[in-house]
Amino acid sequence: MTGVEVKVEGLTKSFGRATIWSDVTLTLPPGEISVLLGPSGTGKSVFLKSLIGLLKPEKGSIVIHDTDLVRCSESTLYELRKLFGVLFQDGALFGSMNLFDNIAFPLREHTKMSEAQVRDVVMEKMDLVGLKGDERKLPGEISGGMRKRAGLARALVLDPEIILFDEPDSGLDPVRTAYLNQLIIDLNAQTDSTFLIVTHDINTAQTVPDNIGMLYRKHLAMFGPREVLLTSDDPVVAQFLNGRRQGPIGMSEEKDAAQAQREMAEIGELEGLPPMKPQLAATAGLPDRQAVHRRRERVMRMLPTLPPAAQAAIRESYAHEGGGTATLTRDEVAGASVHDARTETFARPDNLFEPPPGRQRSR
Ligand SMILES: Nc1ncnc2c1ncn2[C@@H]1O[C@H](COP(=O)(O)OP(=O)(O)OP(=O)(O)O)[C@@H](O)[C@H]1O
Ligand SMILES: [Mg+2]
Predict the structure, then answer these.
(1) Ligand sitting nearest the alpha carbon of 38
(2) Whose CA is nearest to atom 12 of ligand 1?
C-alpha cells in the first residue's frame, strides 16, 4: 500500500492584511518523505496547520482522496483528520495529564479500542521513542526533548497515513536527532506513509527527505526531489541547504541587495557544487524503501532538463549509492565512475531510544 497524496494548489494565507504566503502549489508524493525549509517566520507552521484544516487559507485548494479540505464540511474534515498524525512545534501536550494519558488520547477519542488494547499500543509507541518507564510522569516534570518525543509517540499512535512533524528535532541532542532521523526513515520503509517535516537542521534536510521545499519571501521558492534541490544553483536554496551566512538571506530576511551581491560574488569564486550527501537508508532487515525507487524514476525523467553540473553530480551520487539503484541500469548512470556499492550504516545508540524489534502497523 502506498501512502496518501496531498495536492496543494494556489494556496494563499493571510492574517488580516498580512499575507503570510501566496500561491503555494506542490504535491506531496504519496509514501515519500518531504521536508519544508525556510527562514523563521515565513509561515512553515501556518502551512502545516492549514494542511490539517486548523487554519483556513483564503484561496486555493488542498486535495486528499478527491476531497478539498479547504472547502469541505466540518464532519468530512473530522474524518480526514484521522489520516493525519501531527507533532506541533510546541509539542502541545495536556499539562494535567500524564504521558500515558496524553499518548492514549487520540485512541480513546477516535477508536473503540478496549483499555487493554489502548495500553498495548501506547506502550509500543512509548518504547519506540525511548520513553518506556515514564508513563506516569507529567509533561511539566520532564525535559523538553522528552516532551518532544512524547509528542512524537502521540502523533504516531493512530498509525497515520500522513505524518506532519513541526521541528521534531529542535531541542534534541545530536545523538537523539540522529536516532530520530533513522526512525523517520525506518517508519517510512515499514508503512509507506507520506511525511512532511519542518526542520532547521541542515544535516536532516540533506540526508532524510526524498523531496525538499523551501518557503521564502512569502512564496514557495522551490519544491522537488532532493537530488534537484541539493544540486541547485539557486542562491537562496544553495545558501539555506549549506547553512551559509553569505547569500541573499540575512537575519532581517530582506538583506541589503548590494551586500548580498558582494557576498554572492565571493562565494562564486570560492565554491563549486558541493558533493551530495547520501540519503539515510532503512535499518538492515527492514523492507526496501519504495519511495526511493519512485523518486529516482522521477529524477531520471527530469534529468535532461537540469543544468549540466547538476546532472553530473546526480549521476555521480547514483553510481556511488549502488544497492538502492535497482531501477537504474549501468547505461543510465554512464558517464560517472562506478565504485563499489556502499550502504550507509547507522550506529544505534544503546539504551537511549531503543525501538522494539519488528514494529509494524497495528491496523
Ligand atoms: N494565529 C495567528 N494569527 C495571526 N498571525 C499568526 C498566527 N499564526 C502565525 N501567525 C504569523 O504568521 C507568521 C508565520 O508564522 P509561523 O509560525 O508559521 O512561522 P515559521 O515559519 O513556522 O517560523 P519558525 O521557523 O520560527 O517556527 C508569523 O509572522 C506569525 O506571527
Ligand atoms: Mg514554526
Answers:
(1) 1
(2) 43
Q: Please tell me the number of the ligand nearest to residue 40's CA.
A: 1
List residues near ligand 1 (CB under 6 A).
Answer: 15, 20, 38, 40-46, 89
Ligand 1 atom at shortest distance from the alpha carbon of 38: 21
Is-above-0.85 flag for pTM?
Answer: no
Residue 218 and residue 72: Cα distance in Å, rounded? Answer: 26
Amino acid at 171: G
Q: What are phi and psi of 86, to 5 degrees?
A: -125, 130
Give the whole-angstrom CA distance, residue 278 versus residue 324: 11
Partners of 137 in the beta sheet? none
What is the per-residue burial (b if ≥16 Cβ within 10 Å, else e) of 131-167? beebbeeebeebeebbbbbbbbbbbbbbbbbbbbbbb
Enclosing H/E stretch for 11: strand 6-15
Tell me the per-residue pLDDT of 163-212, one tens digit each, with 9 for 90 and over: 999 999 887 888 888 988 998 999 999 889 999 999 988 899 999 999 99
